[in-house]
Amino acid sequence: MVTGVVYLVGAGPGDPRLLTLRGAEVLQRADVVVYDRLAPAALLDLAPRGAERVDAGKARGRVALSQEEINRLLVDRGRRGLTVVRLKGGDPFVFGRGGEEALALAEAGVPFEVVPGVSAAVAAPAYAGIPVTHRGLAASYAVISATLAGGAPADLAGTAAAADTLVLLMAAERLAEVCTQLIAAGRPAGEPAAVIASASTGAQQVVTGTLAELAAGGIEVDPPATLVTGPPVALAGSLAWYAPGEPASPLPAATRT
Length: 257
Fold this sequence. Notes:
The protein is α/β, with parallel strands linked by helices. It contains seven helices and twelve strands. The model is unreliable at about 255 (pLDDT under 50).
């Protein structure tokens, strides 16, 4: 039986230029691209003109395909002998459900490869001038999802003290509630904190303050957004290097089709 291969590709945090070389390579020879809402649209142009493009994006109140339908689609196209790219925002194995898709492919006997991507867990702080570790300030960091399956809030009581710096993904819609939970769980109310929305894109927005100030409410950011709290956040003012208003450079010619 002829079998294709499915590449689970991390598209990075938002700037299409942060796609890895391996990701660009497999996109350029894809027969099918199954893409998420957070995957940069410009990356679809790297696929051959005749490639099938399938929108599998999910957002609150909108689901193009269920996870089960996505799994079946990947298995079906792989069994047809096609080269399939499953393009996902961030990294496939960091809150990306890439493990579920890899399991479905493994159970179906369809070969697959994981192409890691740059996760917003490190890219969002970096684009805001925040090192997640810094000698003398933070020797550890932890990555936590602020929102669980079905939109349920995460129980942060057991993880609030897990590391010197906490990075919380999917925090935009529950920002004040999450900060309040962290303070209740033992994080200092005066600890520096920042929320970064649309990291690495021209629409990037950074709001800094203390956990107590962010918990007070009144701050509105659109998803996707990343919350960072810990001593290194105090460096953001000195290390801010990214100017979101500047036009992005085009993708390198070597990665265009």
